[in-house]
């Protein structure tokens, strides 16, 4: 059984795990799996709105035009993110942004938190020109503060069981290329060869995942990189408007290295179930065969901002008439319609992989678990 399949099987008994949590005045157990989200602008739901100086924000029109009530929430798309659609499949609401919570006054953080921040990368130097944002290391520190608040609220044993049983969804790495290695004014692209850069990324990710494991994370779904060379902002660098194959090859190489890292952690760390979600194949399918999935256009953005500085759908932009016909919303981010299809495909891949796995037994000991480009892909 693959690691991702094991994550899906764990969902079947996550409720049983939470039913065993009884600690004084602890609130009722959540109805679905607790989810913690770490990532960049593809996963963000509004943390950067709280940073006064952040240059990676999407809290203005036309963002959110297809979100409920047409409100811009800080999501870098016209509607819902892939994570929003995946959460709906798990039967849970999307976790709130970390900076919106008051852990002293409410219990919302007990059912999941989104730490994702536009501009973030695996490396701390990635995204520095966005000024204010949460790097992955900072996001982990935010989670650490959440866990301390959980212990104060429901007790150490209950907090540990909750975290062990939770899904950790991580989507990072795009900015390390688009806003770092591929930028001529960033040092990493001139300091390292690509092989050296991947080793740096993997060594850093290894440390970060071990830190999360030490904080109780056991079930981790890491989103592989999509075909970055095919996003509109990269296509415009080609004389023919085609995908940049060398950039796509970077993504493929990183994904292989990340999978090897995750497999090694599963073998070495007791209880670890860490898997790589194949976003590359799913997104490439949409790009190469858009009509098959109800789209007409996959080589340019709905907002027509492929060559604009920042590549975002600013208020002075003019969105396309049929937003459901475009795979990309702006120069870096997929549209609401594409996010729905991507989530459907990822869900199908996960559930089909677990179809042949033995059903979990209700008597199984211990907690069960489950999983899930602002100026450039922020």
UniProtKB/TrEMBL annotation:
<dbReference type="InterPro" id="IPR035669">
    <property type="entry name" value="SGNH_plant_lipase-like"/>
</dbReference>
<feature type="compositionally biased region" description="Low complexity">
    <location>
        <begin position="352"/>
        <end position="367"/>
    </location>
</feature>
<feature type="region of interest" description="Disordered">
    <location>
        <begin position="352"/>
        <end position="378"/>
    </location>
</feature>
<feature type="compositionally biased region" description="Pro residues">
    <location>
        <begin position="368"/>
        <end position="378"/>
    </location>
</feature>
<dbReference type="GO" id="GO:0016788">
    <property type="term" value="F:hydrolase activity, acting on ester bonds"/>
</dbReference>
<dbReference type="InterPro" id="IPR001087">
    <property type="entry name" value="GDSL"/>
</dbReference>
<dbReference type="InterPro" id="IPR051238">
    <property type="entry name" value="GDSL_esterase/lipase"/>
</dbReference>
<keyword id="KW-0443">Lipid metabolism</keyword>
<dbReference type="InterPro" id="IPR036514">
    <property type="entry name" value="SGNH_hydro_sf"/>
</dbReference>
<comment type="similarity">
    <text>Belongs to the 'GDSL' lipolytic enzyme family.</text>
</comment>
<feature type="signal peptide">
    <location>
        <begin position="1"/>
        <end position="19"/>
    </location>
</feature>
<keyword id="KW-0964">Secreted</keyword>
<keyword id="KW-0442">Lipid degradation</keyword>
<dbReference type="GO" id="GO:0005576">
    <property type="term" value="C:extracellular region"/>
</dbReference>
<dbReference type="GO" id="GO:0016042">
    <property type="term" value="P:lipid catabolic process"/>
</dbReference>
<dbReference type="Pfam" id="PF00657">
    <property type="entry name" value="Lipase_GDSL"/>
</dbReference>
<keyword id="KW-0378">Hydrolase</keyword>
<protein>
    <recommendedName>
        <fullName>GDSL esterase/lipase</fullName>
    </recommendedName>
</protein>
<keyword id="KW-0732">Signal</keyword>
């Amino acid at each position: 059984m693959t690691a991702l399949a094991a994550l899906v099987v764990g969902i079947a008994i996550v409720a049983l795990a939470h039913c065993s949590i009884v600690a004084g005045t602890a609130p009722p157990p959540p109805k679905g799996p607790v989810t913690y989200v770490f990532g960049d602008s593809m996963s963000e739901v509004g943390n950067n709105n709280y940073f006064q100086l952040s240059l990676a924000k999407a809290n203005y029109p036309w963002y959110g035009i297809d979100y409920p009530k047409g409100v811009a929430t800080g999501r870098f798309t016209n509607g819902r993110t892939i994570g929003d659609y995946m959460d709906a499949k798990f039967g849970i609401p999307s976790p709130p942004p970390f900076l919106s919570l008051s852990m002293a006054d409410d219990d919302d953080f007990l059912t999941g938190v989104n730490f994702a921040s536009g501009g973030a990368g695996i490396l701390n130097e990635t995204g520095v020109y966005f000024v204010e944002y949460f790097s992955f290391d900072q996001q982990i520190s935010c989670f650490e503060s959440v866990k301390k608040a959980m212990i104060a609220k429901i007790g150490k044993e209950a907090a540990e069981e909750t975290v062990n049983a939770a899904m950790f969804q991580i989507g990072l790495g795009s900015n390390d290329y688009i806003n770092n290695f591929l930028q001529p004014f960033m040092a990493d692209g001139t300091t390292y060869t690509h092989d050296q850069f991947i080793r740096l990324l993997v060594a850093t990710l290894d440390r970060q995942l071990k830190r999360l494991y030490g904080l109780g994370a056991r079930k981790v779904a890491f989103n592989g990189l999509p075909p970055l060379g095919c996003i509109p902002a990269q296509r415009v660098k080609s004389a023919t408007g085609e995908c940049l194959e060398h950039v796509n090859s970077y993504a493929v190489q990183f994904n292989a290295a990340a999978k090897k890292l995750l497999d090694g952690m599963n073998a070495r760390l007791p209880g670890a179930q860490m898997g790589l979600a194949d976003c590359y194949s799913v997104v490439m399918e949409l790009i190469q065969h858009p009509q098959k999935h109800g789209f007409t256009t996959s080589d340019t953005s709905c907002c027509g901002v492929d060559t604009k500085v920042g590549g975002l759908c600013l208020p002075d932009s003019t969105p396309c008439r049929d937003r459901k016909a475009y795979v990309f919303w702006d120069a870096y981010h997929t549209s609401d319609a594409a996010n729905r299809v991507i989530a459907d495909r990822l869900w199908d891949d996960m559930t089909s992989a677990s179809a042949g796995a033995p059903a979990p037994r209700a008597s199984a000991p211990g907690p069960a678990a489950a999983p899930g480009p602002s100026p450039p892909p922020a």
